[in-house]
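ARCHIVE CARD
CATEGORY: sequence design from structure
SOURCE FIELD: tokenized fold
FIELD CONTENT:
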């Protein structure tokens, strides 16, 4: 009798413990704090590659300042960052590329990368057959040939980096800063690219956005070929050639081409150029080398500013098709062709350099980005990683929310991760909203859709949880029934 009682109590205790363990597992997160390299923590890794090897997809790795003499292979989805670019140096072995990235959604931020060698591409960074990566605030100057190569890779962001070549490398070659080969939908913005053979090189690369870069003291500022690229708001100065590009349906807007030997040689067709400023170029401002290119944006938007334009802006409406004194010259500006018969014109030349409307007080808005997401099909949990930065200040905090719920804050969250439970959304989409704040202005809201696609099999956590609980309850009920029936005897 006493043995049966003890058995029953033991079964009940096991059931309670079993349920408690399942509840604990259900609430456990599958991603913790970042892995560290070179830090004071006892579990900090000695090399960056050893941390990469130990990481799983969607982990973040934080690297402490120091010089790391190694080459890296990143073949998984991770974040790799430091907070001190100048003093966190990855120095290659002088043989090949320093960092090779083949994993998707890699986020690399805050390093000085140098000493690549002639093998491979001879590059500081290579993105090869990948996509959705971010390269932010990196100095990849002083490499053998390329600063960064983006090869057969799309939907990447290359922003706030330095790809200069202040003195010739050991090879004696002047390299290329940024090279895009057979790559599309990339955003190349706010980079400094100085003293290279080619600042930015496009090779069969389409639908890329190249904005707000400084391309100076190169042989070619921007060179190559591709279609449907947007090239806007760049400072292209003191190069031998500012732009030499061929392709179709490219857009060139609000660039400043200043102090180059020659401004632009344009091939291809159906390209559009407007609101660019050609200033103090001592050769040709522009040469037409294609057909059906448009050197203005119609009236009243106007064309480009040419400091050698000698026309005036005085005609009245009766004398011409547009208003007098409207900032647009009365006669067209000739754009000479590379060969006889290629001549064209800017029909509406601007009388002064184009100035965009002023930004609101607070200057440039901060930015927030989601860099990766990992779902757990067993725990109904999504781990969302992201970054935030402010081009002209510091981030105070990042906020997130879902639906119409109140905003929830991360303080000083330049790099963050969030565990997002599926809650009532057992399968389907859940939308999360993020924004950052720099003390003056909020960023634009980034909307991110978290997808829970739980397999409809008995192995899912929810079904297993119910099944195991049901079995345990049946066992207890059965045991109690047997025990009661035997007592009646």
């Amino acid at each position: 009798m006493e043995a049966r009682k003890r058995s029953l109590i033991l079964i009940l205790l096991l059931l309670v413990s079993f349920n408690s363990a399942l509840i604990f597992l259900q609430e456990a997160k599958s991603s913790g704090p970042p892995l560290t390299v070179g830090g004071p923590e006892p579990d900090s890794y000695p090399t960056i590659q050893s941390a990469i090897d130990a990481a799983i997809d969607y982990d973040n790795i934080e690297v402490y300042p120091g010089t790391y003499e190694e080459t890296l292979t990143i073949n998984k989805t991770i974040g790799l960052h430091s907070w001190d670019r100048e003093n966190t140096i990855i120095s290659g072995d002088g043989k090949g590329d320093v960092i090779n990235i083949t994993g998707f959604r890699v986020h690399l931020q805050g390093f000085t990368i140098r000493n690549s060698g002639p093998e491979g591409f001879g590059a500081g960074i290579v993105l090869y057959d990948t996509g959705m990566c971010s390269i932010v605030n990196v100095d990849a100057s002083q490499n053998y040939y390329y600063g960064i190569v983006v090869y057969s890779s799309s939907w990447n962001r290359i922003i706030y980096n330095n790809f200069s070549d202040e003195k010739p490398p050991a090879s004696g070659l002047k390299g290329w800063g940024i090279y895009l080969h057979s790559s599309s939908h990339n955003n190349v913005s706010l980079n400094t690219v100085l003293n290279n053979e080619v600042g930015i090189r496009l090779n069969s690369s389409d639908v890329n956005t190249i904005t707000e870069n400084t391309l100076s003291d190169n042989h070619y500022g921007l060179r190559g070929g591709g279609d449907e690229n947007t090239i806007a708001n760049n400072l292209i100065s003191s190069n031998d050639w500012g732009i030499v590009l061929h392709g179709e349906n490219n857009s060139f807007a609000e660039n400043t081409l200043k102090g180059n030997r020659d401004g632009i040689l344009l091939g291809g067709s159906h390209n559009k150029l407007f609101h660019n400023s050609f200033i103090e170029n001592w050769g040709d401002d522009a040469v037409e080398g294609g057909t059906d290119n448009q050197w203005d944006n119609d009236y009243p938007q106007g064309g480009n500013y040419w400091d050698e334009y000698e026309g005036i802006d005085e005609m009245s409406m009766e004398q011409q098709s547009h208003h007098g004194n409207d900032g647009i010259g009365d006669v067209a500006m000739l754009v000479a062709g590379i060969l006889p018969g290629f001549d064209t014109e800017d029909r509406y030349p601007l009388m002064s350099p184009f100035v965009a409307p002023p930004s609101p007080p607070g200057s440039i808005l901060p930015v927030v980005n989601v860099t990766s997401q990992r779902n757990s099909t067993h725990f109904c949990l999504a781990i969302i990683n992201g970054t935030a930065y402010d081009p002209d200040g510091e981030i105070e905090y990042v906020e997130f929310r879902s639906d119409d719920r109140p905003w929830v804050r991360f303080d000083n969250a330049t790099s963050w991760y969030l565990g997002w439970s599926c809650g009532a959304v057992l399968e389907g989409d859940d939308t999360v909203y993020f924004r950052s704040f720099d003390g003056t202005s909020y960023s634009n809201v980034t909307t991110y859709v978290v997808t829970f696609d739980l397999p409809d099999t008995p192995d899912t956590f929810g079904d297993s949880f119910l099944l195991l609980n049901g079995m345990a309850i049946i066992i207890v009920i059965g045991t109690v029934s047997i025990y009661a029936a035997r007592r009646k005897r």
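CARD ANNOTATION: The chain has three helices and 39 strands. The radius of gyration is 30 Å.
SHELF: design records, drawer C
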